Amino acid sequence: MADYIFHEPPNDHDFRELFQFICDHGIGQPVDARGHFQPWSDEALEAAFAETATSVDKRSIQSWRSGASVPRLDKLRSLADLITRSAGQRSIWLKALIDARRKSIDARKRQATAEKPSPSNSYAPDDPPLRPRNSKWVATAAAIALAGLTLIGAMFVFSDRDAEASIANIQFCTEENFSTESFSCLETSQSFDENTTTLMVTFDLVNVDEGASFERIWYREGLEFLRKSSFNDEAWPGYTFLNFDRFPEGNYTLRIIVDGKSFTSTFKIGDETGYLAYEQD
After folding, report:
1. Cys-Cys crosslink for 190: which of 31, 108, 195, 267, Cβ 3.0 to 4.6 Å?
2. Which of 59-63, 236-240, 246-250 is predicted least confidently?
3. CA 42 to CA 33: how far, in whole Å?
4. Which percentage of the chain shows pLDDT scores above 70?
5. How do strand 213-220 and strand 250-258 relate by DSSP bridges?
6. How many angstroms separate the Cα of 212 from the Cα of each of 16, 154, 229, 231, 257?
7. Residue 103 — pLDDT band, cuts 50, 70, 90?
8. Which of 184, 161, 190 lies closest to 266, judged by CA?
């Protein structure tokens, strides 16, 4: 029988926050022989949705992550199917997803109302009448506008050809297993002893422009405890570290955000976390 990551839905999240929680902690993902699991990537979710009654493409998943859109109810039901195999827990998760969706929609409506401009007259009563435009001037302006649109279109074509920025090979290791010559982990793991005091992290900045900024956000038990901004320059050799006098036991997530896209990896401190549980198929 296969084991899967399971957790009760957290409270007071809007849909973007709840969906990111699901992805970061791999809720519904299988556990391998060593007890490790993977967070949900966009590709993994797209493939998993293809096996349900409602398929969802990668672009929609990315839109959910960013908060640009929320899913329809039928897609929420399919998401609940991915999260748990228990009928009772599925109804609990579906209610949490629907509530979170409603919070996002209500927040969007409030924002739209606050940003709606007040109506005003276009012209004052004593404005002079508009002069008829010279046809030659109109033709010249139209030609300039057409040239500008052509140039913008070309810029979009060339930008589409550029590879997207991403983060790859996020790896964790102890200080003893870190090479200060190659700035890389010699032996990696996603589970560490509670006596660990320094954790090294390495990753690759793929297609990230020199000098471009990115964010590193650390979570323990789903709660953010550290956030730092960095730049892709010579002072940043592609590694970082996290220090504690003694690491609190639990499940940790590192999220790296570059060019508006989020990349995550997780690790565990100690044997008993009291946080994520296993659900058997």
Report:
1. 267
2. 236-240
3. 24
4. 76
5. antiparallel
6. 25, 24, 11, 5, 11
7. very high
8. 190
